[in-house]
Amino acid sequence: MSQIVSTYLLDDLEESLSMEREEFFESQVQTFRDLGRPTRAVEVVDLILFTPKKEFILQRRSSNKLENAGLIDTTIGAIVPFGRSPAFVVMASTLRELKIPSFVFGEGEDFKETYQLLETYVNNSAIVQLADSRTANFKKTYNGESVVIANKYHLYLGVYGGPAHMNLAEVAGLTVFSASTLQAERASKPESFTSDLVFFLDEYEKKIGAFLRNLPT
Questions:
Q1: What mean pLDDT, rounded, does the chain reach?
Q2: What's the rounded Cα separation, in Å, for the pair 34 and 121?
Q3: How far is the first Cα of the chain from the last one, in angstroms, to the nearest whole number?
Q4: 150-194 residue pLDDT tens
Q5: How far apart are CA 71 and CA 24, in angstroms?
Q6: Domain boundary assignment for the chain
Q7: Separation between Cα atoms, residue 44 and residue 26, nearest integer Å
Q8: Which of 169, 139, 170, 138 is nearest to 153 (CA)?
Q9: 125 and 104 in contact (C-beta within 8 Å)?
């Protein structure tokens, strides 16, 4: 059964419209061919997890994915089903893809205080906070074709200190990068990273730095 997802017309980002996932991508790929730009956005969540040592935990997308197959991406990226909240999707995705539960908090929460309260659970679960929600266009490879797709994204940052448990049907692998190693990899192999991840790392560099400073040293 095809998944029904939340989409938004780019000239009306307030009203969520239901659409089959395949229909969204097929129609927007054709729209990009015809107009050179997207006209509709799909709602997504993106989660970047860090270890308690402030290292990045990033996934390599499965080679059987239609979108950005085989590239290094955010820890989790998921489309929001119609009628579901982004926070629910984050919790469901950490369970499905990483086999760990997660505590998910809103943007206004005091993360430093929250982390101190839940730090003893960080080896068994992810502690996650919303960083921002916006709409942006992303270059993607869809079924081998280079296109631009609009995402109404909710970016989450979080901490997890336990072992990696992967659902290999969803994720090809997880890699832990120090900040310096990630910077070097991006410089030497820029084609290995999704445009989504590159955008988030550059656009939210200061916010990521502030988030990591809340973690104990």
A1: 91
A2: 50
A3: 47
A4: 999 999 999 999 987 777 666 678 899 999 999 999 999 999 999
A5: 22
A6: 43-135+150-213
A7: 17
A8: 138
A9: no
Residue 51: HSE in the Cβ half-sphere, 13 Å Cα cutoff: 14
| The token pair that represents 168 in the structure block | 């290999």
- Rounded (10°) angle between helices 179-188 and 195-203: 130
| DSSP string for 158-194 | EE--S-----TTTEEEEEEE-HHHHHHHHHH-GGGB-
- Identify the CA nearest to 133 among candidates 20, 11, 5, 13: 13
CA pair distance 46, 89, nearest whole angstrom: 10
- The residue type found at 202 is D
Name the nearest CA neighbour of 57 among 195, 151, 165: 165
Q: Residue 27 pLDDT > 90, yes or no?
A: yes
Of 23-37, 59-73, 114-128, where does mean pLDDT reach its minimum?
59-73
Q: What one-letter code names the amino acid at 200?
A: F
The whole-model pTM stands at 0.93
Kindly state which CATH superfamily the domain 43-135+150-213 is placed in: Nucleoside Triphosphate Pyrophosphohydrolase (3.90.79.10)
pLDDT at 163: 86
| 3-class SS of residue 38 | coil
